[in-house]
């Protein structure tokens, strides 16, 4: 009938109150036990004193009192242990109840988030992301290939000249001196033919590169 006189207590509040009462009872029992242990020490001292004085009747009476005191101390130990067990169970219930409330809140929040999510819209976004990502990779690849093709000829020419110079140095031939000593017509004619052949090869390669790049760019425009 507590709801007629005020706000009804929640389970968490009831558990907290009961645990507070148990903790108080445990402290009271511990205080009583310590008092009995002090009394036990006094009885032992009095028993020894009476025994030395030969007062065996008093010794027997105090011995019975000592036994009852020790039994009571043992009972307090057991009672304290039982109350501590109950207190631990209440603490476990509080933790379980708190976890349940937390899970309830998390579940509610997850439900709200799931209701706000539009699965078809998310699928469309992911498809568009995949398409744009693929397009970006293709653009990067085309640009990289174009740069590599543009620089490939110069690099090969430089490497070729370095290799020829290295070989001629190893066999002890100075190419500049050979060109000076050689007849002008003999040197010029092959050089001219080499330039023509190189120009034709370069022209053919460039046309192939241009057509390949154009095909890739056309493919990108269609995406």
TrEMBL record:
Q: Which UniProt keywords apply?
A: Coiled coil
| Basic and acidic residues: compositionally biased ranges | 213-223
Instruction: Extract the InterPro entries matched here.
Output: Snf7_fam (IPR005024)
- A Pfam family: Snf7
UniProt feature coiled coil, ranges: 12-46
GO BP annotations, alphabetical order = vacuolar transport
Q: Where is this region: Disordered?
A: 186-223
Name this polypeptide is given: Uncharacterized protein
Please tell me the species this chain comes from: Hibiscus trionum (Flower of an hour)
